[in-house]
Structures are given as structure tokens and as C-alpha cells.
């Protein structure tokens, strides 16, 4: 997915659980259905949190990337 297809980017680096997920929920609530949120996190627990959240909601985890020190999630608002 190219940056032009991303509607909003949320930088939650250096925040620990549960703040990355809470901030993402707030950002998703402001988006229209079908829009895409890119989340950049450093909390290792976010891997589990974002997967569980999207599995239990109408939002779709389009992709996730794990880098050396950060985790990136692309979430489409349901």
C-alpha cells in the first residue's frame, strides 16, 4: 500500500500498552468507513493487541510490518 492510499498516520512510538491501542481507537472513530489508518508503534505488546482488536471489531488489519525497533499497522475502518 502506498502512502497516497493512507488517510491518516498515527505515531504512538514510545507509548506503552494500552495507550497505542487506545489512541488508534480514537483515531479510527474520526475516520470514515473504508479509510485507512497507519499506526507506528514501538510497544511489543501492540502486535497481540492490534490483532485481537481487529479480530473482534469490524475494522480490518490490512497489513502489519515488524522492523528493527518499530511495528507498523495498516487498519481499514469498518
Fold topology:
Elements: E1 8-12, H1 19-30, E2 36-41, H2 46-55, E3 60-66, E4 71-76
Describe what you observe in this structure.
This protein has 78 residues and is an alpha+beta fold. 28% of the residues lie in helices and 31% in strands. The chain contains two helices and four strands, in the order βαβαββ. Strands 1-2-4-3 form a four-stranded mixed beta sheet, covered by helices on one side. A hairpin with a 4-residue loop joins strand 3 and strand 4. The longest helix is centred in the first third of the chain and has 12 residues. The two termini are 18 Å apart. The relative contact order is 0.26.
Which residues sit in consecutive blocks of at least 5 with pLDDT less than 50?
A: none
SSE order:
EHEHEE
Q: Overall mean pLDDT score?
A: 95
- Side by side, the strands of the main sheet go 1-2-4-3
| Helix-strand makeup class | alpha+beta
Beta-strand percent range: 25-35%
Report the strand count: 4
The Rg value, from CA coordinates, equals 11 Å
Q: Overall 3D geometry?
A: globular
> Helical proportion?
25-40%
- Distance linking N and C termini: 18 Å
Describe the largest sheet: 4 strands, mixed
Query: What is the overall number of helices?
Result: 2
Tags for this model:
4 strands, alpha+beta, globular, single chain, 78 residues
Condensed summary:
By secondary structure, the protein is of the alpha+beta class.
Amino acid at each position: 500500500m502506498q502512502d497516497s492510499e493512507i488517510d491518516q498516520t498515527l505515531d504512538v512510538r514510545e507509548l506503552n500498552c494500552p495507550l497505542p491501542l487506545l489512541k488508534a481507537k480514537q483515531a479510527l472513530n474520526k475516520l470514515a468507513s473504508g479509510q485507512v489508518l497507519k499506526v507506528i508503534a514501538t510497544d511489543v505488546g501492540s502486535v497481540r493487541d492490534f490483532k485481537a482488536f481487529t479480530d473482534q471489531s469490524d475494522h480490518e488489519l490490512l497489513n502489519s510490518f515488524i522492523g528493527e525497533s518499530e511495528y507498523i499497522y495498516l487498519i481499514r475502518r469498518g
